[in-house]
Amino acid sequence: MSRLVVDGYNILHAWPDLARAMRTESLEEARRRLVTRLAEYRATTGNEVLVVFDARKRSPASVDREIVEGVEIRYGSAHESADHVIERLMYEASRRGAVLEMILATDDHLQRDLVRGMGVPTMGSRALLTEVQRAEGERSGEIRRRDEKGAVSDRLESRIDPEVRRQLEAIRRGDTGGAPNPPAPGGRRLT
Question: Per residue of the chain (191 residues), what is the pLDDT tens digit?
Fold first, then answer.
């Protein structure tokens, strides 16, 4: 399993639907949509996802770290930008020898060059969008297949032996197929 680290505001500005949401709705809504899409990616791929945002674009009462829909979110501080948080995380990974378990998603060329120098693989916003869309497609296909399978297998009749089902249907219709009448309660046969 690998860990995807996302330069949050960089991706918000790079993905057209999120940039539009920032302009027409709110920054908070755009962030929520990004996290939701990354949660889908995480659920499909099993990769850990960490999004890093700058602190200056959030309310002062906000926390520095949170988990939303399985996605870890970290914020910079007044003294440490998102870029610095990302650089520190990548430096720590390189010290542990875990850089190949990480991948950074950003269009910030300076940031990409810096972490690549530490041995960390990177991807741009378009590559990340392609990966997220692929994961969303796989997830919706998986849900559709499960729903289709569930619609058939949830019915009791689909789980009963065909011969037993035929016999039960005959009883329901009152067709005993020439078989003698079953004994009535008390052991007498009805005629």
Answer: 589 999 999 999 999 999 999 999 999 999 999 999 999 999 888 899 999 998 755 555 566 788 888 899 999 887 888 999 999 989 888 888 877 788 999 999 999 999 999 889 999 999 999 999 998 888 766 656 666 665 555 566 667 777 887 887 778 777 766 555 555 555 555 55
Contact 73, 66 (CB under 8 A): yes
- The whole-model pTM stands at 0.69
Domains of the chain: 3-139 (3.40.50), 143-173 (no CATH)
Q: How far is residue 175 from each of residues 2, 161, 162, 179, measured CA to CA in Å?
A: 63, 19, 17, 9
